[in-house]
Specification:
Elements lengths: L13 E4 L5 H8 L3 H7 L1 E5 L1 H9 L6 E4 L6 H13 L3 E5 L1 H7 L8 E6 L21 E6 L4 H13 L4 E5 L8 H7 L8 E4 L1 H10 L4 E4 L5 E2 L9 E5 L8 H5 L3 E4 L11 H12 L7
Helix pairs in contact: 3-4, 6-7, 6-10
The protein binds S-adenosylmethionine (SAM).
The site of S-adenosylmethionine has 16 residues, from helix 10.
């Protein structure tokens, strides 16, 4: 790859990179692979507004990668300051290198590398999270497989002021590029916990509020169910729905009535309907 002809101005703590063989560039590219994300505990987030969300939620980057011109303007300067204060590695990359690091679709000119964060499972008598005045409401996603769905659900959990997400069983990775992108920065705001099916059954069995499972055979209309806090809302896998073992520990199984040809809604859509119904008493204009 020929070096980018444009000279990149440097300040202290920053490095100009024009080679795809650079170790940091190779590491960032390898974070496309789940195995590498698991081994390193790192992930990539793209775009200035997403990075500002990370900053505003108390995250610090391990690396900040800026393409040509990305450090200009007030946002560019603010991101550089944030990264410098955090002692992050700051890489000014050529357009050719950026092209290989950024998403193919709607590529961004700035990206950050972060350490993944996992929360512990909520207590059975969950308390409100952080400064939220809202009653606790945790969403469990059993065996979710689609990272686009997961990112959309992170965003919706954030928008509904829910407490966090528990990923149960064998799920897709919330720190994949697609999930992070679909979350629109909510990956930095929503606590994420994980467990296996036995852990979920133990959590649901000891839960002190309502455990509401969503099920196509549910006998209760989701609008009239009444949800006693703390609420544990359990959503099933895109193909198979809720497992029988998990459905058996739900205090109630609710259904969203439907018309038309199809037997179910998209998981992220169903989660959004449920969350905003449960939050109806707390949300107003
Ligand atoms: N064939 C699957 C089944 O039998 O459950 C459909 C799974 S659906 C695509 C994925 C998840 O979205 C379900 O497990 C449930 O949590 C939720 N869901 C979708 N449509 C729903 C509805 N009409 N009522 C309740 N939950 C629904």
């Amino acid at each position: 790859m020929p070096p980018d002809p444009r000279p990149i101005p440097l300040t202290s703590g920053r490095r100009a990179i024009t080679s795809l063989q650079n170790d940091s560039v190779k590491l960032i590219r390898s974070l496309e692979m789940r195995k590498v994300r698991r081994e390193t505990g790192l992930f990539v987030a793209e775009g200035a507004s997403v990075l500002l969300t990370a900053r505003d939620n108390g995250w610090s980057p391990r690396m900040l990668v800026s393409g040509p011109g990305a450090d200009e303007g007030s946002t560019g300067v603010a991101l550089q300051r944030w990264a410098e204060t955090a002692g992050a590695e700051r890489l000014d990359v050529s357009a050719a290198v950026l092209e290989k690091l950024a998403a193919k679709d709607n590529p961004q000119s700035v990206l950050g590398v972060f350490e993944q964060r996992w929360s512990s499972l909520p207590e059975p008598a969950a308390e409100p999270v952080g400064s939220s005045p809202m009653p606790p409401l945790w969403v469990v996603l059993e065996e979710i497989r689609d990272p686009g769905n997961l990112g959309t659900i992170m965003r919706t959990v954030d928008a509904a002021g829910a407490s966090g997400i528990v990923l149960a069983g064998n799920t897709c990775d919330p720190f994949s590029r697609e999930a992070v992108r679909a979350s629109m920065g909510s990956v930095f705001a929503v606590p994420l916990a994980r467990t296996d099916r036995a852990g979920l059954i133990a959590l649901a069995s000891g839960w002190t509020g309502d455990v509401a499972g969503t099920h196509l055979a549910g006998k209760i209309d989701y609008r009239g169910a009444g949800y006693r806090a703390p609420v544990l809302l359990i959503m099933g896998n895109e193909g198979a729905g809720l497992s029988e073992d998990v459905a058996a520990v739900c205090g109630k199984l609710v259904r969203i009535p439907m018309a038309g040809r199809l037997d179910s809604l998209n998981l992220a859509v169903a989660t959004a309907l449920m969350l905003f119904e449960i939050r109806r008493p707390q949300l107003s204009l």
